[in-house]
Task: structure prediction
Amino acid sequence: MSARTTHRLSAGLAAIGLLLIPTACTGNAGSGGGGGDTLYVGTVNPPASFNPINQSDVGGQFAVRFAMDTLLDQPEPLKFVPKLADSIESKDNKTFTVKLHAGAKWSDGQPITAKDVVYTINLIANRDSLTTLGGNVTALTGVDATGKLPKGQAAVPGLTAPDDTTVVFTTKTPVDPNYVKEMIGTKVVIMPEHVLAKSTPAQIDDSKFAQLPDVTSGPYKFTKYTQNASIEYAANPDYYGGAPKIGKLIMKIMPASNLAGELQTGSIMMNSGGGIGNIPFQDLKTVKAFKDVNTKVNPTIGFQTIQFNVKTFADPRLRAGLAHAINRKQIVDELLLGNGEVIDGPYTSQSPFLDKNLKTLSYDPVLAKKLLTEAGWDFSRKINFVVPTGNKIRERSADILLQNFKAIGLNVVQTNYDFPTTLAKARAKDHDMVLMGLTFNIDPDVSNMYSSTGSFNLTGYNSPESDKLLLAGKSAAKPEARHQIYNQLQALWQADMPVLTLYSDHAVAATNKSVAVGGATAFWPGTVANVGQWAFEGAN
Result:
């Protein structure tokens, strides 16, 4: 792996946990300081990478999706709409057929065909590829638990292209069609085989294409990237979904504290939202007062956690005691100014799989101390509490947590590190407790965090019952059966408490009224579903 690739991956991993970081400009409302056909979007995170299949950060995923399409999109939870594919269907929930949009072309004029889809999936599954999408293809026949093929094998068994507009693939066992539609349909960005086929899988991540794709499939084409400052796009007039209504788009990267001022002057016409461009809650009242800006506050699927090292706190009563000691409502009220929610587990109110009948753990210092005492905790023992820097609200939440722990007599010592260092320590279990921000999919499978072999299991949690239910949940083909299984899992995880969800913070979506169509949506992952139709007021 090259030094440049390592740097990008580290930056990307930082964005998974933080979704934060950096510059600014001036202009006029409706034109953003340029022509009336240029849309300026304010965002906070610079992309860690432009490689469509190696996107570990939300900033990079968002930037790429303006120029590169997936097979489907998901404007609302579990609602799927065509993109490069008109449909993904199965009669037995095991053999899936993808029907592509006829006539779609790459920006260089070459047709987008089934061979591109087959090439992309094989590239992801290739053992030599650097990709963050391995987990998205683990259900396919012939790949291992990381989504990779055996060494020396270059093609996924059963993955074929019978004709230019048809792709067929099979899964190991029957699966929920919605799982395939989300994990493969909406997450796998299709790559151009005719551009990349001469490169080996190991070379793709360092290729010229991966630095800033010059052959694209989406409504916009990349024109320029100024590091940590801006990403510029031009409309693709030959886009299969119709020529975009806005000719140019510029994503301006700036500190979150600048977003409100730039909206006020018209230097940006919207913020990107989704954690990578959220307006600070202390600026929310100011932004809501702007007469030429529409502002909404929406729930998200992201959340912040405190992860307990189960080796340090081996008795579940210890972890439950720590959880009861934490005043999560205080964090939401004081730091989020009420713009958030307290939940137990990995599903927020945006998830159809949240068990709303499961009562959240209470803030109860007396019960907390009782549980810790009964489990034999030595209150003089030092607890190593690791906090990543960069997310100011999360850093401030650590102050509240320390107060809560001190109030019941715990000896907690906080250490702060940048996110890559924090993640390295967390993976090595070099912590007793660690703060970590996460964003998953609408699909409820969270094996990577709760499975005993999960790639993001930072706690050391090892429950045969949880592993069995996770496997059953992933394998269940019917949504009703999956709901029952994940309800059982939520109850089990609350009882075992390897991870406590502290809060899910809402996101502010602000859009200038000069934009008739466009902006961050209530379900943020669906924001770019209709980006080709974004338009200024009065556009035809």
Summary: The longest strand covers residues 220-226. The chain has 16 helices and 21 strands. Residues 1-35 have pLDDT under 50 and may be disordered.
